[in-house]
Design goal:
Blueprint lengths: L1 H27 L6 E4 L6 E4 L5 E7 L6 E7 L4 E3 L5 E4 L11 E9 L3 E10 L10 E9 L1
Amino acid sequence: MKMIGTMVGAMTLLLAGLNLAACASRIDEPQAAVVEVTDKDTGATIDLEPGQPLRVKLASNRTTGYQWLLIDQTGQILEAIGEAPAYRQNPNPGGLLGVGGFEEWTFRPLRQGSGLLRFEYRRPWENGREAIKSVVFTVRVR
């Protein structure tokens, strides 16, 4: 009976040690910094490392009916993460109506290469009308 108790104790210590080692290895792994661009960066070339996330934040006011639409994603080098786009309203301590915010997409690289991301700010139901704004980014994954 003592032998079983000793084996259980040894197994518990072994599992605890393995758990600590796994946690330590995750802490030591460098996390790729998120690259963030906005509509002010239109025309920019964005260089990403494998695994490095890209966040696109575009100023928006959904109360006007306008929203950003991802129109073109050439090269198929990126994959959207999560629900896209996420809309976030700017802080509104006064409770005013019609406060703007931003729409946010997050992408992760799928493979090396280059391509374009093109967004247009428009009312989705107004077919045939030109967008009131557009932004384009060239993305390169090394």
